[in-house]
């Protein structure tokens, strides 16, 4: 009787316990690194370290289990109040441990595990690694996240909904008579486009377009010549952390010749929708399909994009250009007066002024007989390397002006007080004061952008500069004879200093003669380099040099920093490094290596472009070229040596 009386409640209780146990049962998935992630029960305190995974968790109804985010995550709005635990590539392990998560999700953007992830695993926190590269990868990742968070059914439903929407767009665009050829710009400087290995490629294909770029990579460095040869029907520019404030293509040199620009088919899109492999990529497909094939979609079917949909640049309107605009398009940009004025005349005037100041100061120092006094300041150091007083004076002057230092060396060489070997070694030694001359500017560019990585970069390059100088002095000590303590190299006899009027008169006569000789070589050589630069020689050379960066040492993502340093300026490379560092794409070590690689590759090219004209003017053309090439070779070799040492011995 007792059994019968309690049989029904006991049965109900057992069913409830079974259901509760099922909801709390152990779960297991295999991540994209082949790791088996086992949890005793579904995760309830999850920290995703990549924004795409955060979006996936909210899409499957597991947003309430997210307890933190990275600094770059801002979607959906519900994540904004959550604590930020560093960046994707530099997560704050202490903060993560303090939040006590039962699951951390990371993106497989690196080939090996990071020390931060290894530390989390050592203390027993499961770390799942995923690397979705296409829609199937996104959907499969969402399903596995559903299993890990106890939202398996919701995840399957979300995936089915996204799949249906994607298939609906594909069915509609399959009716299109023409599939436009599209180039998708990831970055404008240097020009970088999406290859067939990118998420953007998947979106283009699904939206009824064809990716005009057939390179198998995800991120492809591209030349203007290759772009003009492709001549796409549509040009898409993504805007976001990887491509901040891109210049409208219609305002870029040579882009006016593109069919897409002439027809006004230039679109700007949100990077987070088109390059982040998450559920919103389906939104991107729907938005883009309506832009590319408006005749196939009813106007009322347009979804609210929230301001994130594709849009045209201001001024990019469809239609044929006017005859005047056509003539401007057909005329090379470097033949247009504004370009000549901005990129040739103004730099030449500025260069001439600085050369004139440097020559005048150098001649005044000689005419007043100050060389002996200045030489006393650095003489002991250079005398150890058996370099004389003239070299010491130039070394001191190089802390303030490279032109003045080179002028002093050339004057001494012409006067016979400096041999060619001493001249070469003196030029190499002067790279140390030249480093300090530019150090304040470099420091205040790097510190706010890359912080710790900037300090490490400066430490490596300073070590290379000091070691290089000591090595050159050691070579001089071995190869050069002992310099005389006094003699013909000391300009002027004691007690016979000329008056200021005599010194200025002598300086003016020598200054006019030498300035004319310098400008006779500098002006035509600078103009030649301007023409070579405008026809794309240096861009072609620098693009190919950037491809030599060893990606097994420097991550693929870091090639962007190298390319920015090469094709733009150092500040552009530092800005790119700062953006990638803040987004968590690069570690501190990878950032330093990228900056060093850009330094090694870009500085010789920049020296040829900017320093060679006045080197060939101050010295003879042959001697100036030889000295510049020697200095850049030794400098690059020393920085490369210390970059290797940093790679081998710096942890991370």
From TrEMBL:
InterPro entries the record matches: ABC_Transporter_SBP (IPR050902), ABC_transptr_periplasmic_BD (IPR002491), Vit_B12_bind_prot (IPR054828)
Transmembrane segments: 49-68, 348-371, 391-411, 423-449, 455-476, 518-538, 588-605, 625-650
UniProt signal peptide: 1-25
Family matches, as Pfam families: Peripla_BP_2
Domain Fe/B12 periplasmic-binding: 45-296
Keywords, in A-Z order: Membrane, Signal, Transmembrane, Transmembrane helix
NCBIfam families linked: TroA_like
The protein's name in its UniProt record: ABC-type Fe3+-hydroxamate transport system, substrate-binding protein
Organism of this sequence: Desulfacinum infernum DSM 9756
